[in-house]
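[Amino acid chain]
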Amino acid sequence: MTKINLTIGIILGSSRPGRVSPQVGEWVKEIADKRSDANYEIVDVVDYNLPFFGDISGEKQVLEWAKKISCLDAFVFITAEYNHSITGVLKNALDSARDEWYDKAAGIVSYGSSGGVRAAEHLRGILAELRIADVRTHPALSMFTDFEEFNVFKPAKLHEKHVNEMLDQVNSWASALKSVRN
């Protein structure tokens, strides 16, 4: 059987000054890079400077974003919980592409005072509308136990197992869905 080469984007979904999503994303990528099942890359929404959805002055950034999303087979969303939901910048990034998301897989790594679980649940509903199959395993990181002083990421060892389980599921679904898109 021929191995399907997958490219999975680790989407950093926060832009707030002092954000911790780059620390969490790099940690997930370090775990992922020890595997041989896909190519993993960090995709930071900040790098695309997306305009507010519907603002035609940012058409170039939106096209660049859509092109990036189109070339990915699956995603791992790194999402903070802000006001019991996902960040505005992540919602805007999701809305700034459409067909490019279709028939792909995703995992969610969330963080917040309650592990970011409410953000993850809101994100699942949005992903369903974009025809993204999200996987069951969901590493949830607590700002109280997985971060020092709420800004230095020091994850508990048990989370590495959960990240690998999530990546197993994302890869399985991404492989299956790749045949749907072809």
